[in-house]
Amino acid sequence: MKKIVILFCIVSSLCWKPVATADDFCGIRNRSFQDGENISYHVFYAVAGIYINAGTANFTVNQESFANRPVYHVIGTGSSNPSYDWIFRLRDKYESYIDTASLKPLKFVRDINEGGFKKYENITFNHNANTAVTTEGVYKVPDCIQDVLSSIYYARNIDFNKYKPDDKIPFQMFLDNEVYNLYIKYIGKETVKTKYGKFKAIKFKPLLIKGTLFEGGEKMTVWVSDDANHIPLRIESPIVVGSVKVDMMQYRNLRYPLSSMISFNH
Question: Which UniProt keywords are given for this protein, alphabetically ordered (predicted)?
Fold first, then answer.
């Protein structure tokens, strides 16, 4: 759902000096996920410090063929629980067709309904011409462009061991007919306790785009598993009213054992 996907909708609105250029990550190879991976999340919403289970999100990976090329067809869906639809009804679906060799997106589809705000977006990327073709026109994009969903799987393949705390890891993303210069601010490693269990984790902060749910700035915190899978374990962020906490609750067909898990909550 957007509360998960938006964690990589990050744009630098401040002056900063990155430790690498986005081109340094161009053509990064996939070493973290595989065909058949399925990860589910619970989304908890809090006002005055009391958290309620307000929604769910699910991400799947299937290896397919698109435009005569092997791709990872990634689907991210999310919805508010029916009992809370009267507060904020959310039904989101994101799809990305990602080239298996380069991890560049070939096609991206966004179909969202968030509190009555509806949007449909269909983008085809032509990497030979460096263009993105949308329902509204043709736009020039850099060679290593990502979309909202492909950027999550792209970022899971970053070697965080190469960085020190406060380093910024940049890349570029196309969203709403614009190219954004993005980065993830690496915080370090720590143990995190979630609803699912206790994990050794990698911690970072994305700088968010201001939107209908999230305020702009470096307020969201993300923990991913400190193992070869790099799956998101927990996301915490304030929103316009209250705050959200997102925990991984179920997984299937990970590429590697989830060796970062220290203990499991029964």
Answer: Signal
